[in-house]
Queue: 4 jobs
Job 1
Amino acid sequence: MRAIYNQDRRTGLYLPEGFRPQASGYSEAGASRIRRALKGFDAHSGSPNEDINWNNYTLRQRGRMLYMSSPLATSAINTNRTKAVGIGLTLKPAIDRETLGLSPEAAKKWQKRTEAEFLLWASRKDACDATGMNNFDAMQQLALVSWLMSGDVFPLIKRRNPDRIRPYSLRIHLVEADRVRTPIEYGGTTYPNITNGKNPDTGNRIFDGVEVDASGMVVAYYVHSTYPWEITSAEDKWIRVEAYGGKTGLPNILHIMSSERPDQYRGVTYLAQVMEPLLQLRRYTDSALMMALVQSFFTAWIITKSNPDGIPFNETGDGIVGVPSGNPAEVPRGENEYGMGAGTVNVVPEGEDVKFGNPTMPVASFDTFVKTFCKLVGAGLGIPYDVLVKEYNSSYSAARAALLDAWEEFRMRRKWFVDDFCQPVYEVWLSEAVARGRITAPGFFDDPLIRAAWCSAQWIGPVQGSLDPLKEATAAVLKIQHGLRTCLVSIKPSWNAL
């Protein structure tokens, strides 16, 4: 006899007839299908590839547009850049001298020499940047902004012939997220945005330009010579870049991103979760500005029987503030167009009239509303309101708490950035420096443990700011006197180095 299944009203599940389980746990909470507040909440989440890669093209464009047009979005990204990287993270070699068997003096001498050699490469635009536009400090700033704005960025390892001034061949080319995508011949398209593909030679799957093997390991990236929809005469070609060199094991390309889900191979713009509130806030502030602008205008409208010669009051201006007189692209010239501005006089033909609605809004609540929105956006981005809008009008304790909370976010983001960009670049550079004999490192290419000991380094960046140095110094002294803190910690804060 075939069982009859009916949908249970309480749980929403299809159960055998006569079977009535007692709802419990999340079926009475967030998973309930009968509560009124949750009845229309039909959430469908797919794989990271479907949820992220299939939407990334749209997210990138919107993220960039908000960065260019929304002051709050600009502040969020630039504040991260300033606090996490600042003028640039500085290399401080910190080799494991115990593993290497070096004396403190020998280790200090080696570190000083290596630091000078790295600066020789990193300080010159034409020595470290494949495009010759930025030195290594500026490349760090650019890479971090591009990472946050677009979701990820790809430093590509290139080589140039060394010369007497530039003794190293290493060059870094920052490739923006749009140029890494699935080739058309492998199944990818830009519109509609199809990001899945397959390499016919290896059988590996491709996720939005990232090729992975059967075990899920990234093995290659596909870089296009141009941007999507770019109008250019440049050659249209794809380059498959293996993630690591077969002989050296060094990376051929780096991938700067932060993951939010397992099995995720492409990053998401930093502004993804707050795009809608940012856009609505921009629209709200624009409309409030326009309302104030319209109310400030004093415009006269003259109704006549005929006006064969057009507007005779040229001395009053065009009716558009800030537009030079005679600019045909900006000045109203159509039959039904009229200018509006400070002290403007317009002529209206007989039988026509001009009426305006009264654009009013609760000005008193504007500031409160905008502040609330900014707090919500800041919470979503991990930046307290005070830091996001650069407003420190609250109490000392509240402002200090906001700075401390924000600093945890900046430290974490700096750690990610160092691991994805600064340290790998340093290790690639150091490998060349040792191979060319400019730096001596015995056992560097023989033992991975010895190699790691030589490559150990710290990256020094901006330190946490201080609202009241006297209060913080007094607190530090009290902690030292009561044995709650050591002098070493007070002199060299733990956030100075990662």
Job 2
Amino acid sequence: MNVFVRTFIGGLNLGAIYALIALGYSMVYGIAKMLNFAHGDVIMIGAYAGIVCVSSLGLPPLLAIFLSCIICAILGMLIETLAYKPLRKASSLAVLITAIGVSYLLQNIALLFFGSQQKAYPSIGDFGSIQIAGVKVDGISILTIVVTAVIMIALTLFVNKTKIGKAMKATSEDRGAAELMGISSDKTILLTFAIGSFLAAIASAFYGATFIYVKPTTGSMPGIKAFTAAVFGGIGSLPGAMLGGLLIGMIEQFSQVYISTLWSDAITFAVLIIVLLVKPSGLLGKTVVEKV
């Protein structure tokens, strides 16, 4: 029983991190209709920014996290402006190749400045622990889950209730019509990339607190799994990204404990394939009917 509870909490913690990253993927795809495959590497940059702020500048951890969020938001806007904006009318293949190029560029910049050796992410604070069903659970795990849930709810309310959020939805539905109504699609998409990258930096703090070590390729696999989570839940759906992230984390964690660590990734992606065969739009995604 203790093993099950520990695995369950670990899966929720891991899934919450994936969900935070997946929220950024879903926002960018939902509004800009682009898959930002460099999103995982923004997480890596956020982690290194946190390390520099604490270790080199001596800043408090919470201030370091906030600054890393600002840095990543600016980075997200630069990526959109310099790499993706010129490609909005280009083919999906051109966008994919550009995204891969941006990903490798960020990894090599990190390699140039920080080297290939992994670095320890600083502690973000002592949050104690609590007992759940006889199992001692770190406070940081509970905080990760709670913060992710709060962010998902806040983002949903932001998109559905605010003027800027409604502009995002209008841009997503019909960019041309939104422009005719006075909505700047350029500014809306730029803000979307900034918010997605801001969330990536928050995810990097929880990732660093959970896995401790960071290296230039740190963001690759979490980025792929978060994209998987976004597709699993229904890409473009914020609740779907949350659900997909939690489910992917749970599947991965239970596979590692009860089957094999060697098979956990294969099982995770196999489940994704099965779900998409049954429901191609994802668990909470909307099926779009195209009229001919």
Job 3
Amino acid sequence: MGIVKAAMGAVGGTLADSWLDYIKAQDMTPTTILTKGEQVSNKRSSNKKGNADIISNGSRIEVGPNQMMFLTEGGKIVDYTAEQGYYEVFLSESPSLLNGDLKASVRETFERFKFGGQPGKSQQAFFVNLSEIRGIRFGTRNALQYFDNFYNAELFLRCHGTYSIKVTDPLKFFMENSSACSRGRVDFADIQEQFNAEFLTALQSAIGQMSVDGVRISNLTAKSMELTKYLSNVLDESWNQLRGIEICSVGIASISYDEDSKKLINMRNQGAMLSDATIREGYVQGSVARGMEAAGSNSAGAAQAFMGMGMGMQNAGGFMAGASAANLQQMQMQNAQRQQQAAAPQSAANGWQCACGATNTGKFCTECGKPKPAPTGTWKCSCGAENTGKFCTECGKPKPADGKWTCSCGATNTGKFCTECGKPRG
């Protein structure tokens, strides 16, 4: 039993009139995974004794977009195609096995399962939905454990969202879900409970791996693409290799923390903010301002309130003054550190590297004591000063031309020694 592509000329009622059987997929919704082929009703045909489980030789089958059709005989898969079009059935033909866009592994699945089933005369056509099945909702009933390196604590979260799947090996799905497929129709709702349970188990493993990789708990919502890859790795063996289904995408709609985790996160964030002396001083001054505002609105009288506030301020004044002084000192230290950091690149740029490899900023190497090399283009005046410009910075003498130098005795020379007094060039 095999199939070959039929001519594309006849469609609609013409097909029903011209062929013994005209078969197409039953109503296939966005969540349908598998459905049995049905014969198109033909009121004008004289053949009223057809058997729904017998496909006549020469019948025509329509395969729609993103569908895979396979023929069975006595429960044995005998042929399939994943290419859109019209096909004619020939019982004497060898299988055509038209993969379409499916992976080459589908042919291997056919070789493994084609001899399965019981012999008989039952012939059926099944259609598998190859489109992505989207919008599968999930939610964690119990809080998931997550160790966050940033908070250095074990946190607990719940997450809700959706995921999508796609059938990548329909033959494997059919053989591994034969009991469900025997009913002639499989919607994802029929198997969702089992898949969701396995998905949530894999989600715990994937989130645990993200924790090991150092992903902050607050970044999980923005890491949907990464989470999909983690889940694919976890579910690859159980879903893809065993059932012919792959997970396509995961979307996290919301993440919530238990009460203890919320308190710990808020405490850590407040502590991080108050470690800045500027923010801490603003908090102190804001507390004073709020106290004065509350005193002014006291129904017992502002004068009495301010008197009470003054007594309180006398008692707390030492603490407030000490806190502000400590904040001021830390702010000064922070400003000094910022200035040092800003000046560090400039110092490094003005530094020089000794022949021993050490980097220095002074006139002598801190490692070997060698003097800083003179920059290129310098000249030494008779007064002993080294210069780079046209005049000496110490005595104002002009730079000698053509490498000439002036001795302390007043003689102008070009060699290493003075021609008048014999002194070496300084």
Job 4
Amino acid sequence: MVNKKSRNEIRVKKHRRLRNNLSGTAECPRLAVFRSNNHMYAQIIDDAAQKTICAASTAEKAVAKELDKTNNVDAAAYVGKVIAQRAKEAGIEAVVFDRGGFLYAGKVAALADAAREEGLQF
């Protein structure tokens, strides 16, 4: 009998390994990304103060009304644009990117590229 771990268990284990080397500070906070089946979430976090500086997701009414679907690459790119704009308003120029154990492809890459295009550096 094969005892295979679920994809989520593998992702959580990868994320724990990544978080051992990533940490956000007040000068350079962490951009954390989470992707569910229906939504994309992005937060900018100061780990030293244990505080979320700003956040954006497709679950927000203001963001969702701009989108046709909330679970595709276009939606992820729009969330990247929104989080970068909110970061600029909060005075943040550079961040450390935390992909949350997800592969850097598809929706995660689209979010990161859109955030970079809006001027967020990482």
